[in-house]
Amino acid sequence: MNRLDKEKFIFGSLFLLANKMQVNGDKYLAEDDMTLRQWFLTISILQFGDHPPTLNEVAEKMGSTRQNVKQLVTKLLEKGFITVEKDAADARAMRLKLTDKSESFWEGREEKDRRFITDLFKDLTNSELNVMCEGLNKLLDTIKGMNRNA
């Protein structure tokens, strides 16, 4: 297989993997009335630490649009997993905060979630994981550069 064929294979495989991971993640979280994208939103909010992020900041972190994130926020608001507050300095900005319900929900799942991730990657060696991490980071950096130049 030449380089271009490998690049095409990887490109297509990433789409396939993303779809299959979402389907499997949704099945995994279904009993708790959660989707993988909702899970990803809560994880993204956690990345900001004690500083509640805005809707736009979370959309950027997730690599998604503001509208898509707003739809996820609406669902998580209905479930009581997050709150939305107006920013003190900019009334147009909405800040997202995880609720106590959300924190206790995720704390109770730590071991189960760890097993899910471990099972997903169980057939990869440490060396393969290192190569994948390095390659995905480079690909993400390339895409960021493409977006800056667009």
From TrEMBL:
SMART domains: HTH_MARR. Transmembrane segments: none annotated. Coiled coil: none annotated. PROSITE patterns: HTH_MARR_2. GO terms for biological process: response to stress. Residues 7-141 form the HTH marR-type domain. Pfam families: MarR_2. One of its GO terms (molecular function) is DNA-binding transcription factor activity. This is Transcriptional regulator.
